[in-house]
Amino acid sequence: MTRGPTLPAxxxxxxxxxxxxxxxxxxxxxxxxLLHCLHSPCWSHRxxxxxxYPDLGALLAAADEAxxxxxxxxxxxxxxxxxxxxxxEDTYSAAHMALSxxxxxxxxxxxxxxxxxxxDVPPDETPDRILEAIRSRLTNDPxxxxxxxxxxxxRLARGRLxxxxxxxxxxxxxxxxxxxxx
Length: 182
Fold this sequence. Notes:
Layout: H1 18-24, H2 27-37, H3 41-49, H4 56-68, H5 72-80, H6 93-110, H7 126-137, H8 142-165
C-alpha cells in the first residue's frame, strides 16, 4: 500500500516572551518597568543599559549586581519608595494596629520604611512574620540595619522582576500597591 504525499511539518509561530519584550522595549519603558521593582533610578538605568539579556537568570544576576552597588544615597532613595507590605484582607484589626505601631517605631529609629522579602510565606502567616521581623530588627545598630535593608531590597527587586518577566500578573508591584507578600 502506498501512502499519499505527506504534509510539511507544522511550525507554531514564534511568540515573544516577556523577556524578549523587555529586551526590545524603549529605554524609558524598560526603566519604568524596573522602577516598579526597585525605586532607584540609578539601579534601573544600569540594569536597562545592559540589555539584551539572554535569559532571566542573566537579568537577575545583573539586577543583583546593580543592587549590591547602590550608594548610600541610592539606597535611601530606593527605601523612600517603599512601604509596609499590605496584609491579607481578613487580617484582624488588632494585627493591623500592632504592625502599625511596630512600623512607626521602626521608621522613627531608622528613618525609612521597614522592608522584608516574604517569598513564599503563606498569606495567613504574613502578619506574624512581619511583626516578628520588625521587632527583631528594631534592636539592630543603624549601620547593621542598613545592610539588612539593602539585602531585603535586593531580594524584593529580584522577586518582583521575576514575577514581571514570567508573566505572573501585573508588573506594577510598587509597595504603594499590594505586593501580596512578595
